[in-house]
Amino acid sequence: MASESEHSAVVEDGVRRRDFINIAAVSFAGVGAVAVVLPLVNQMNPSADVLALSSTEIDISAIGTGQAIKTSWRKQPVFVRNLTADEIKAAKAVPLGELRDPQTIDERTKPGKENWLITLGVCTHLGCVPLGAAEGENRGDFGGYFCPCHGSHYDTAARIRKGPAPTNLVVPPYEFTSDTVVTIG
Ligand code: FES
Q: What's the predicted TM-score (pTM) here?
C-alpha cells in the first residue's frame, strides 16, 4: 500500500502531467492560430520588394533629343524616348484611319511634353523586347521600334504599323514629378 508521501507524489505527478498536457495543447492551439493568421495577413500586405517595385523614378535629364533609354518597371522593360520635332511631325501626319490601333501622339504623351514617349518595351504580339531604344539598333520601317521575333514594326509614336502585333506598345501610368524626373507606376 502506498504511503502518504508516495500517494501525494503520484497525485502531484498526475497533476503535473495533466498540466503539461493542457499547456502543450494550448501551445499547439496557439501555434496553429498564428500559423493560420499569418498567411492571411501576409496575403493582404504586399511584400517589401513588391512595394519597392510598384513605382520607378527615372532621371531623364541626360536623354538628349533623338535618344532613348531602356529602363524597367515592375520587372518589365520600359523605353523612354526623347522624340525629335521631325519624329513628332511624322507621327502627327499619319491619318488615324491607317492605324491598326488608332491613337494620336497626344493621347500617348503628356500635354506640353509630347517629345517624351514612354512605353513598355514589350511587343504586344508575344512579348519580345523590340529593338530601337539603343543607339544603332534597327528601328524598323517606320522609325520607331522593330520586334525581330516575328517582324512587328512600330512608328515614332510606338504605334503598330506592320507585322503581327495587334496593338501599340503600352504606355504605362506615369507622371512628371519635375521637369527632369518621371515616376512610373
Ligand atoms: S513577339 Fe514581337 S513580333 Fe512576335
A: 0.74
